[in-house]
Design brief:
TIM Barrel; 8-stranded parallel sheet; about 35% helix; binds N-carbamoyl-L-aspartate; binds zinc ion
Length: about 325
């Protein structure tokens, strides 16, 4: 059997949810990744030092070996003391959700100006700003492009602030991240490297491919792939694995989010292998993200073998990406 070795993968953008499902989602993620950045858009949101401590403890009790980097949901009400306490509680980043733009973001930012003082404090404290970069008022396919000006503004106004433009979906955003200073970086998901809008609505409607930001045109996907393969440390992996129960995706008001954790690493190996870029995968999945967040790279190595397997139709009550399809690589 053909095998390859990779550093134990990091995932710098994961949704674990809350309540009874949390433990099973966390267990699935921990089989694939050693270290994760946990998103705060739970119900209620992670928005205080206590919430961070409790959420981390809950994840730890489900999966003691999973290393978690915690985040809080940005709002305009935080004081400098709130931010300091959240940092002490283990937060490394705050997540900016424009109001209403994605799952559980109704309480997100509706007034850009109002969060600038909080972002200024985050800059002083060395807290990373992770942004869901979509402008809610724009036409759905233009939302990311329209948000670029805000990232440019933040980067110019807060030159020391570390900014992650999350889950890029357009060539325009890749170009912006390349153009902006070194402390503005981006995560890339596996589904945006694979899919275009055709995979959501081009044939029959595919609710399990529906996510925010929407995958876009083939040229956009190509730009994302080139960014991933470039070996530029500004681009690293964040799956945005976002499980929703099957019924919530298939109902009349389908939830946005792709459940990719169970298949993300095998798919990445396949994508990089097909492009003859396997040599770029270790940094993408186990290097550049850690460097950006200022944490040591994992020393542990993981081995993968090439042997067909079929992705289950359902994992933890949610339909995973590539459900029922054959993948070629798996962990050994
Ligand atoms: C995410 C979710 O379900 O929490 N959904 C998504 O479509 N990506 C939220 C997010 O990251 O936008
Ligand atoms: Zn997300």
């Amino acid at each position: 059997m053909q095998t390859i070795e990779l550093p134990l993968p990091d995932d710098f953008h994961v949704h674990l949810r809350q309540g009874p499902a949390l433990a099973s989602y966390a267990k699935t993620v921990s089989k694939e990744f050693g270290r994760i950045l946990v998103m705060p858009n739970t119900v209620p949101p992670i928005a205080s030092a206590k919430a961070i401590l409790d959420y981390r403890a809950e994840i730890k009790s489900a999966v003691p070996e999973l290393e978690t980097l915690m985040t809080f949901k940005l709002n305009s009400k935080y004081t400098a003391m709130d931010l300091e306490q959240m940092k002490l509680a283990g937060a490394v980043a705050g997540k900016y959700y424009p109001a209403g733009v994605t799952t559980n973001s109704e309480d997100g930012v509706s007034d850009f100006e109002s969060v600038l003082p909080v972002i200024s404090e985050m800059e002083k404290l060395g807290l990373v700003l992770c942004v869901h970069g979509e402008e809610p008022s724009a036409f759905c396919l233009d939302r990311e492009k329209e948000f670029i000006k805000r990232v440019e503004f933040l980067s110019a106004k807060f030159p020391k602030l570390k900014i992650v433009f999350e889950h890029l979906s357009t060539a325009a955003a890749v170009e912006a991240v390349l153009r902006l200073p070194q402390n503005v970086v981006a995560t890339l998901t596996v589904h945006h490297l694979l899919q275009t809008l055709d995979d959501v609505v081009g044939g029959s409607l595919s609710p399990h491919h529906f996510c925010k930001p929407l995958p876009k045109r083939p040229e956009d996907r190509e730009a994302l792939r080139q960014a991933a393969f470039s070996g530029n440390p500004k681009f690293f992996f964040g799956s945005d694995s976002a499980p929703h129960e099957k019924e919530k995706k298939e109902g009349p008001c389908g939830a946005a989010g792709v459940y990719s954790a169970p298949v993300a690493v095998p798919l990445l190996i396949e994508i990089f292998e097909r492009a003859y870029k396997l040599n770029k995968l270790p940094d993408f999945i186990g290097g550049f993200g850690a460097d950006f967040y200022g944490i040591p790279r994992h020393k542990e190595i993981r081995k993968y073998g090439k042997e067909d397997w079929i992705v289950p139709q359902i994992v933890n009550g949610a339909v995973p990406l590539f459900a029922g399809k054959t993948l070629h690589w798996h962990k050994i």
